[in-house]
Design brief:
homodimer, 197 residues, alpha+beta, Pnp Oxidase, Chain A, nine-stranded antiparallel β-sheet, 6 helices, 10 strands
Amino acid sequence: MLDAGLICHLGLEVDGWPVVVPTSYGRQGDRLYLHGSAASRTLRAAKQQVPICVTVSLVDGLVLARSVFSHSVNYRSAMVFGYPEVCDGADKLEGLRVITEHMAPGQWQYVRRPTDKELAQTTVLRLGLEQASVKIRSGGPGDSGATDEDMGLWAGELPIRIGSLEPVADPNGPTGPLPEHLAVLGERLAKRLAPPG
Amino acid sequence: MLDAGLICHLGLEVDGWPVVVPTSYGRQGDRLYLHGSAASRTLRAAKQQVPICVTVSLVDGLVLARSVFSHSVNYRSAMVFGYPEVCDGADKLEGLRVITEHMAPGQWQYVRRPTDKELAQTTVLRLGLEQASVKIRSGGPGDSGATDEDMGLWAGELPIRIGSLEPVADPNGPTGPLPEHLAVLGERLAKRLAPPG
């Protein structure tokens, strides 16, 4: 599930308030890497040895039932809790590799690597996967068998899927030929994000 | 933006830890309604006059740049902060109406309304929109004009869009004919979730 998602939601306390921000991430083994600007207030707070929660949610469908009460959402969600470590040196570079490859497999080999100046402007956090939980809801509405069935209403699921889209070239600068790993990226992501089975 | 999203991420502190959970929601005027099971530990905590953060994020595309550093995600995100109120009586029913209609416009009139027993099993929270912020990133990679352009690499955006899908009838019980508002729901959601312009 962590390998399927595109972004995560990072939650932590900043100045006494809970804050939830969308963030890029990637997983390697039992490590989750999170990416952000070194200037971000949330990322700065996350470096101060505070507990965080990282949630990845994938919406698979809307569950359209015969009653308001039985309406639901089919989804997969993973929550990871812990105290993040700030990555430095080789580990920071490894984190950026994992995050870049999570977004677009093949890009790390293809594009220019970060300079020291760029690395200094980037924060990479590492979180272990020891404290994690997963929730899944799938299938049709749960109101089958109830007297609601007799109402003659339509009930079922509207699946939510990412379409397989084509890359759009940068309108502001010259670009080279589209490499194979980016030509197939849309199709790969659509498959990756779809629920199993 | 709040009207476009399908789910939000609710963040708050539970037993000293930040917790981020995906949740159904809906907006009416300057009120955000959140839905959950009365048995949920997170929802129970949210009823104790604690501050919460509600974030709605829409991923519009992956920004594939000429350098690792300039990679990004095109997204729209809204964050709302405040102390939620627990809805009761007519306000609770109004909240459920707003949340149901947010998910599938037309459903509130079409399906069976909640019984008193069902209402007791449901928690609806209300949050004002006074403290809110919005972030948007759109467009191509920001590395145009840099010397990176000379590398002859392909750069651009992979748009992420929801496909327009067909409803699937409940396999576990008899369903009536598909009503018009559900027949067009997939197409409506795909349009609603797509970035403006």
